[in-house]
Amino acid sequence: MSPAPSRGAGRPGLGARLGPATRGLVGAAALIGVLTLLARVAGFVRGVVFTGSVGNTTAVGEAYNAANTVPNVLFEVVAGGALAGAVVPLLAGPLARRDRAEVDRVVGALLGWSLLLLVPSALAVAALAGPLAELLRPGAGLADQRTLATAMLVVFAPQVVLYGVGVVLVGTLQAQQRFAWPALSPLLSSLVVIGAYLLHGVVAGPARAAGEEPGGAAVAVLAGGTTLGVVVLTLPLLGPVLRSGVRPRPTLRFPPGVLRRAGGLAGAGLAALLAQQAAVLTALLLGGRLGDPAPGSFSVFVQVVQPVSVLPYAVLAVPLATSAFPRLARSAAEGDRDGFARTAALSTRAVVGVALLGTGLLVAVAPAVQAFYGGLDPGGGADGDGTAYDAVGRAVTAIAPSLLGLALVASVARALYALERGRAAATATVTGWLGVVVAQVVLAAVLPGADRVVAMAGGTSLGLTLAAVLLLRALRRAAGPAAVAGTGRTLAAATAAAVGAGVVGRLVVDAVLGAAGGGTLPAVLAAVAGAAVTTALAAALVALLDRDVARAVLGRLRRRGGGGPGTADGPDGAPGAEDREDAEVRGDAADGGAPPAPGGRTS
């Protein structure tokens, strides 16, 4: 369908919202941080509820986790990579020009191509659900587990289309610096899925713990509630997009000159996401089919180890990376190299600081994580029972270093996409994810099957660290030394703080667990105590080791006491000089050990 004719290049409410002076880098990050904190808390609770209501080592839980991986992987392979890095850069230029008609056409074309590719893919999943279930072979706990996985795949198939629509809508909102709904929709989705898990536990009754076949109603609640959660994750975003002034009509025609840019950005993103999905499939095979892994290895990895590790990344690092991306894209579109380098350096330093704080936190609370989840699972999770829970503490420790790599992939790859250096971003990211695959396979061959989840966690850290190093080198080459200025100093200070604080926090956790004994409540108390000690000590050490960061924090406090930014936007919607200076202070403060509090696909 052709796009509607333009009704004017500057309808009020679109370009005017690009860059208010009150939205500096960390001002926007604070908004995202609050909503992301709530969403991630709900996502964390969702994983806890799944463990207690369905179980990671039960046959149903293993079938669910394996089947629910299919729509995620298929979406990323078919369209996710093509969309991930393309939406915001493609919209940055027309938004800066306040060309509403071109914005509508670009968004409409992205939606049109997404539907063209993803609707047949979803139909293929539903039609081939049986063979796919046989290929997955998620476990041997139930004689008719293939039937169970087949039924789930049919219900999960529409998620493929919903994910594509959601990525386009999220990118459209973020390009306009509208961060609230993209951060809020995962919260609403998690609440829906939590309800489905709880209801499944009630409907399934004692069968879930006894390993018996669940009834059709229990399977329908579990699978249908999960897909409903993806509906809630995606479709409510259409309202904010329309209210922002965007009126997309799905089409297969891009505006003149945009198709080539879209193809370049899409190709780079696709390569990176293909490599990432190779890592997902490797973990699925290592955890369920290859060798002799401990029962529940894949489920424990994706429902316990990964969510726990991603929590500090999503709450601390993602808000900074996300809020910086539209500014980076706008600076690149306007040819403002100095502004781009300044924003890139500030966001990179901030992300490094908060990611390493998260690393220290994971090292500290790892034993408490094992005690907590192991006590919840109806399929068994006690120490020494032979399931993957025996290795959770070691796995969380092994995956902790991946936070730095994951955070820099999110931040620096965005900066390179904003410069339309998609090939450089793709090369580094692809190399990192392929490094994850190789490292996981090697570690799985070296370590015993009981430590399969440790092999997957350690391989993740090694590969993502490699990606981070390559991305920083690529950013320096693309934007000059100013784009990474101060990163080395912050990296050294934050690493020392994370190691020192993490070790002390771990001692506190071990002491609390030793004194209070096992169980979920002692595990919670130990985690809270260890996290508090780690955070306080890490902040003090960063202030001691990096005085520039400490001065930035004090400068921010003084500025906040004296008033806000001093200038209004110019006619092009760009912040004035004083607002840029204020954004610098906020950016430096954010990387000084006191950062603001997933997004992404949550099903």
From TrEMBL:
This is Putative peptidoglycan lipid II flippase. The chain crosses the membrane at residues 21-42, 73-95, 107-129, 149-172, 179-199, 219-242, 263-290, 310-329, 350-373, 393-417, 424-447, 453-475, 487-509, 521-545. One of its GO terms (molecular function) is lipid-linked peptidoglycan transporter activity. It comes from Pseudokineococcus lusitanus. GO terms for biological process: lipid translocation; peptidoglycan biosynthetic process; regulation of cell shape. Pfam families: MurJ. Residues 560-603 are annotated as: Disordered. GO terms for cellular component: plasma membrane. InterPro entries: Lipid_II_flippase_MurJ/MviN, MurJ. It is a multi-pass membrane protein. Keywords: Cell membrane, Cell shape, Membrane, Peptidoglycan synthesis, Transmembrane, Transmembrane helix. It is found in: Cell membrane.
